[in-house]
């Protein structure tokens, strides 16, 4: 049965005719291994003398650590090593430091306090998993529970407990200026005053655990050449490798990461927590070490899609046109930033959804609470706010007494329209999507709505950037001192106006370092080749942008003397059974 | 290390029970706990005892060995009326391992079969030679130092035994609640009904208020109205990841009505 129906007449000039994968059965590249039970997961790799690592975790949402007594655990059978915060060479990190975004805020093992339930404070390495588990449960931690906050709005109130000392106001800091990400386009207050109806809605999303069948974990083992091999469940191999190198303060060239088949990820395996732990264990014990979360850990400390709260206020004309839309959004990051700061920026770029609304303003907060740190999940940063926007659209339709599909078609963005983040919309297809969905569902829409097209009616006045109202409310730390409004453009303080047509500074990509590194567009086949208005492409031949070509640096002087031949300082004594093969690596479980 | 002791008879296995020791029936609960790191289990005892695997009848009584699996119950014609209960437990892999005896000890939210045994007013023969009814067993099962060898009950007349299960995942989800009911009928009127729930308490429990409200009534919408409205009376179902206590209380009357009237789910 073929249930796929193609509407190839739509956007036929935007894609080549040879796109034919959809609607055809395609064999997944790894499916043969899966159905025959031969795919090797990280846990299928077997090592001689494998040790097991388990963490001691906080039972409190927020607590200071008064003392840790692991003397019993140390003496237990099979226990090889206790790993504490001081054993982590660089015990503070933020994931997005790899792209220079945010401040270091999260320890691998916490020494002074814990900010979410299940936060690890100590790890035990033992011969068997059971021994590690029993030893970990025998560690006595004297906790001093502290007041905690589990709700984003409460976390912003003056006097709320500070969750994360790096961000004492419980908010991520944007542009070194505000405690939230602002978006201003036009003047929402003017839009509200021109509107016939005001429609407000409040939408709350709970965290969602990705729940992979294979829990997060990694096995690391000392390898030849003073390196470490690490088999991991990561979804982001090089990201995990770089994070491990940073936390362990070692050269990334010493780490050999092997990923591969992931037993379900969905965004929940990018946080690079298990890899540094396993490699650290292997470094400290000199043996292969497995660090694997059990199901309870996966659910309790595995980072979920974070909770979100969106408050939307719309100004609507009697005919259904939305004249102004104002968002106040909160991403609950949990105790540490991980990737939530980025979700805020990504969602802001998506506002106000696939609609052309002349006045848009948003304040979006990345808030720290004493919940499990949140991370990516499918549609990261967009899914939650889209849910809120579409619920709001239904509410607007009800308020103005209009068909919800027709309301969407009326307000839908069209090719050439200006988006709120000041980029021109293209490849818009919401109108066609609504039309086909209505037709398939047997939902009757008016002939006028049926006639609409996303290729027509866009641009022109809809492409103009309006005069924009601005404010400077919500500077870093301000909210801590007094209760100030969370919504955009509400409250007292200096206001500004940006003249119509101001597009903001253009962001240009860094030029290629050398001419031969420049992309040869003629050889690239991408969707960009098929856009209706051909994009202007840099002509590499006439752009001597390379720094090397523009100002050639003098080469360093050649070394005068050849270096002496390498002589090892000590005789090689790492017990390798076969040259070039790790003495610990003994194969995989399934062949 | 976990020590495993295998015995020839269930009585020997029972004698080996002490602290931090568990008896392994089919292993679907015990081995999951062991594999998931339950370090309170230091010793596993099991018995390769054919006498507790049998399903037979003695006159009008059905005798279920505690080691009979759900698959055995499904395969035996003596227990055809229990097929819907057995089929509702796990998938084929679980059913081929999970035992009747294990289900009697299963913690909430498991225990659909135990609810059926409770509804059937069964007597349990323990390895210490004593006999105990299902109600008292459920009250004491946490502290029991004996094992259950056999379960005996009177075969219900045709059409007297009913079972309904509501789960959020189909076909092999855990029960939100399930209801097993023995509804004897004389001259069109219900007498001495026994209704048991799984999921409405920490152990399978009887719906005493609904049973009383059904006495002498007919099985039609008016006759059962009082029983349906008393379906959750006096019960405090737990909150868990499967369902909230409130939801279970709301579902119970709906499922009981369907069961009593034979309505489709």
- Poorly predicted spans of chain A: 526-560, 572-578
Portion of residues in helices of chain A? 10-25%
Shape of chain A: globular
Strands of chain B, count: 14
CATH topology of the domain at 44-146 and 210-300 in chain A: Aldehyde Oxidoreductase, domain 3
Q: What's the arrangement of strands in the largest beta sheet of chain A?
A: 4-6-2-13-10-11-12
- Across the major sheet of chain B, the strand order is 4-5-8-6-7
The mean pLDDT of chain A is 88
The name CATH uses for the topology of the largest domain in chain B is Uridine Diphospho-n-acetylenolpyruvylglucosamine Reductase, domain 3
Q: What is the C-level CATH assignment of the domain at 44-146 and 210-300 in chain A? A: Alpha Beta
Structural write-up:
The complex is a heterodimer of chains A (591) and B (265). Chain A has 15 helices and 19 strands. With 591 residues, chain A is α+β, with helices and mostly antiparallel strands. Among the domains of chain A are: 44-146 and 210-300, Alpha-Beta Complex (Aldehyde Oxidoreductase, domain 3), CATH 3.90.1170; 152-207 and 304-400 and 411-431 and 457-471, Aldehyde oxidase/xanthine dehydrogenase, molybdopterin binding domain (Aldehyde Oxidoreductase, domain 4), CATH 3.30.365. In chain A, helix 6 packs across helix 7 (274-285) and helix 11 runs antiparallel to helix 12 (430-440). The radius of gyration of chain A is 28 Å and the shape is globular. The two termini of chain A are 37 Å apart. In chain A, 40% of the residues are buried. In chain B, helix 2 links the parallel strand 2 (21-23) and strand 3 (43-47). Chain B has 11 helices and 14 strands. Chain B has 3 domains: 3-47, no CATH class; 50-154, 2-Layer Sandwich (Uridine Diphospho-n-acetylenolpyruvylglucosamine Reductase, domain 3); 161-261, Enolase-like, domain 1, CATH 3.30.390. By secondary structure, chain B is of the alpha+beta class. A 5-stranded antiparallel sheet of chain B has the order 4-5-8-6-7. The A-B interface holds A 128-130, 133-134, 137, 294-296 and B 1-2, 36-37, 39.
């Amino acid at each position: 049965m073929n249930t796929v129906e193609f509407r190839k007449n739509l956007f036929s000039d935007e894609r080549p005719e040879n796109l034919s994968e959809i609607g055809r059965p395609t064999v997944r590249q790894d499916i043969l291994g899966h159905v025959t039970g031969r795919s090797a997961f990280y846990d299928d790799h077997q090592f001689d003398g494998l040790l097991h690592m388990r963490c001691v975790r906080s039972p409190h949402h927020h607590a200071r650590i008064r003392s840790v007594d692991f003397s019993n655990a140390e003496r237990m059978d099979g226990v090889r090593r206790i790993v504490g915060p001081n054993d982590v060479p660089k015990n503070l990190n933020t994931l997005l430091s790899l792209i220079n975004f945010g401040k270091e805020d999260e320890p691998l093992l916490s020494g002074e306090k814990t900010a979410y339930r299940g936060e690890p404070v100590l790890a035990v390495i033992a011969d068997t998993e059971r021994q590690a588990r029993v030893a970990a449960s025998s560690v006595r931690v004297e906790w001093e529970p502290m007041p905690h906050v589990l709700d984003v709005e409460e976390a912003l109130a003056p006097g709320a407990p500070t969750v994360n000392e790096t961000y004492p106001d419980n908010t991520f800091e944007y542009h070194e200026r505000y405690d939230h990400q602002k978006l201003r386009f036009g003047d929402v207050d003017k839009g509200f005053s021109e509107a016939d109806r005001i429609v407000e809605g409040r939408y709350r999303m709970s965290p969602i655990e990705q729940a992979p069948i294979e829990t997060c974990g990694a096995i690391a083992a000392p390898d030849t050449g003073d390196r470490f091999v690490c088999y991991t469940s990561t979804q982001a191999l090089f990201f995990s490798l770089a994070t491990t190198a940073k936390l362990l303060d070692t050269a990334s060239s010493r780490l050999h990461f092997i990923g591969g088949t992931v037993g379900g990820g969905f965004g929940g395996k990018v946080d690079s927590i298990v890899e540094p732990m396993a490699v650290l264990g292997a470094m400290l014990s000199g043996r292969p070490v497995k660090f694997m979360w059990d199901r309870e850990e996966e659910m309790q400390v595995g980072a979920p899609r974070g909770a979100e709260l969106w408050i939307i206020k719309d100004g609507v004309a009697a005919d259904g046109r939305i004249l102004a839309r104002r968002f106040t959004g909160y991403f609950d990051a949990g105790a540490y930033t991980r990737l939530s700061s980025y979700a805020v920026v990504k969602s802001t770029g998506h506002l106000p959804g696939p609609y052309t609304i002349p006045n848009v303003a948003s304040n979006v907060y990345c808030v720290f609470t004493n919940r499990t740190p949140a991370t990516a999940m499918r549609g990261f940063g967009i899914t939650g706010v889209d849910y809120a926007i579409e619920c709001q659209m239904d509410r607007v339709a009800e308020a103005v007494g209009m068909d919800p599909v027709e309301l969407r078609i009326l307000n839908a963005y069209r090719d050439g329209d200006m988006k709120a983040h000041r980029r021109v919309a293209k490849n818009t297809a919401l109108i066609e999507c609504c039309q086909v969905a209505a037709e398939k569902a047997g939902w009757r829409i008016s002939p006028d709505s049926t006639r609409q097209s996303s290729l027509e009616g866009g641009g022109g006045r809809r492409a103009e950037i309006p005069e924009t109202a601005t404010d400077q409310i919500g500077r870093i730390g301000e909210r801590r001192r007094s209760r100030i409004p969370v919504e955009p453009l509400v409250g007292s303080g200096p206001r500004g106006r940006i003249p119509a047509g101001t597009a903001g500074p253009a962001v240009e990509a860094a030029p290629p370092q050398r001419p031969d590194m420049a992309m040869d567009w003629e050889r690239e086949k991408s969707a960009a080749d098929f856009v209706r208005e051909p994009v202007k492409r840099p002509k590499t031949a006439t752009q001597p942008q390379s720094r090397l070509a523009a100002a050639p640096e003098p080469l360093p002087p050649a070394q005068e003397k050849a270096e002496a031949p390498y002589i090892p300082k000590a005789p090689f004594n790492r017990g390798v059974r076969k040259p070039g093969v790790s003495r610990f690596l003994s194969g995989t479980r399934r062949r | 290390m976990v020590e495993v002791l295998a015995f020839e008879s269930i009585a020997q296995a029972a004698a080996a029970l002490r602290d931090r020791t568990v008896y392994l029936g089919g292993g679907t609960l015990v081995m999951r706990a062991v594999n998931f790191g339950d370090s309170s289990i230091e010793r596993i005892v099991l018995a390769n005892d054919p006498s507790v695997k049998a399903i037979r009848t003695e006159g009008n009584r059905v005798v279920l060995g505690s080691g009979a699996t759900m698959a055995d119950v499904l395969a035996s014609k003596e227990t055809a009326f229990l097929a819907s209960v057995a089929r509702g437990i796990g998938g084929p892999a679980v059913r081929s391992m999970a035992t009747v005896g294990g289900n009697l000890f299963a913690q909430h939210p498991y225990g659909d079969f135990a609810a059926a045994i409770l509804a059937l007013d069964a007597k349990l023969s323990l390895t210490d030679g004593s006999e105990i009814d299902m109600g008292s067993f459920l009250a004491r099962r946490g502290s029991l130092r004996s094992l259950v060898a056999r379960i005996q009950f009177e075969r219900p007349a045709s059409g007297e035994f009913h079972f309904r299960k509501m789960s959020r995942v189909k076909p092999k989800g855990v029960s939100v609640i399930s209801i097993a009911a023995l509804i004897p009928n004389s001259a069109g009127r219900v007498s001495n009904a026994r209704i048991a729930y799984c999921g409405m308490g920490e152990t399978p429990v009887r719906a005493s208020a609904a049973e009383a409200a059904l006495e002498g009534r007919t099985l039609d919408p008016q006759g059962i109205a009082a029983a349906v409205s008393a379906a959750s009376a006096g019960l405090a179902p737990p909150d868990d990841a499967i369902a909230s206590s409130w939801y279970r209380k709301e579902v119970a009357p709906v499922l009981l009505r369907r069961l009593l009237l034979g309505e489709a789910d």
